[in-house]
Specification:
- By secondary structure, the chain is an alpha/beta fold.
- It has one domain: Uracil-DNA glycosylase-like domain (Uracil-DNA Glycosylase, subunit E, 3-Layer(aba) Sandwich).
- The chain has 8 helices and 6 strands; from the N terminus they run ααββααβαβαββαα.
- It has a 6-stranded mixed sheet, sandwiched between helices.
- Helix 1 packs antiparallel against helix 5 and helix 5 packs across helix 6.
- The protein is globular and about 50 Å long.
């Protein structure tokens, strides 16, 4: 064990093999690969969160993409969802560049930390309740380590529900909340705000369910709240 709790948590996440179905799938994807990435050495392991450890904004997605984070080893990196998300983070001043292609691409987040409800790529992007339960302690520990956290942005209904449960397990009083895009929920007595947003998946962006304007509006409100505007 190291003296750095972040490093310890990262090592424990990467070593996790609690969910046989997810272990088998992530490793199969990493072995078979997609033709476009046949020269890549896929990550093929659970993916830890990353970003500014002094962040006031925590962003929680669903899970690593099979050929995105499961390939690159960094959340929302190497797929279309990441292009959409980091473009918005850049425009809102939370990232130094709009692109997130690989771990060594120079991306730096400022005042934001990105993670997910689950750390392994799931088949068909679907997770069981037990798999989410197994991963939730990692999210709870990240929340505890982010001492300056003020706003939690949940991308999608599953992430929103995972955040609700994690906050309750941390001792916060969280009433039954409705997931709706742009939902803004101050949690009484905690100083925290839980925010709901549609997930920046291709399915949502290509159908127009989530537009860049809608995403920018969410981050604009978050930026204003953190800046005290």
């Amino acid at each position: 064990m190291s003296t750095d709790p972040w490093q310890d948590l990262e090592h424990q996440i990467i070593a996790c093999r609690r969910c046989p179905r997810l272990v088998a799938w992530r490793e199969q994807v990493a072995s078979v690969k997609r033709r476009a990435y046949r020269d890549w050495d896929y990550w093929g392991r659970p993916v830890p969160g990353f970003g500014d450890r002094a962040a006031r904004l925590l962003i929680v997605g669903l899970a690593p993409g099979a050929h995105g984070a499961n390939r690159t080893g960094r959340m929302f990196t190497g797929d279309r969802s990441g292009e959409t998300l980091f473009g918005a983070l850049y425009r809102a001043g939370f990232a130094n560049q709009p692109d997130s292609r690989q771990r060594e691409d120079g991306l730096v987040l400022s005042d934001a930390f990105v993670t997910a409800a689950a750390r392994c790529a799931p088949p068909k992007n679907r997770l069981t309740a037990q798999e989410l339960d197994h991963c939730r302690p990692f999210l709870i520990r990240e929340m505890a380590l982010l001492a300056q956290m003020r706003i939690i942005l949940a991308l999608g209904r599953v992430a929103f529900q995972a955040c609700e449960r994690a906050l309750r397990e941390r001792g916060h009083s969280v009433p039954r909340l409705q997931f709706r895009h742009g939902g803004w929920y101050p949690l009484e007595g905690s100083g925290l705000i839980l925010v709901a947003c549609y997930h920046p998946s291709q399915q949502n962006t290509q159908t127009g369910r989530l537009t860049l304007g809608m995403l920018d509006a969410v981050f604009g409100r978050i930026r204003s709240a953190l800046d005290g505007v």
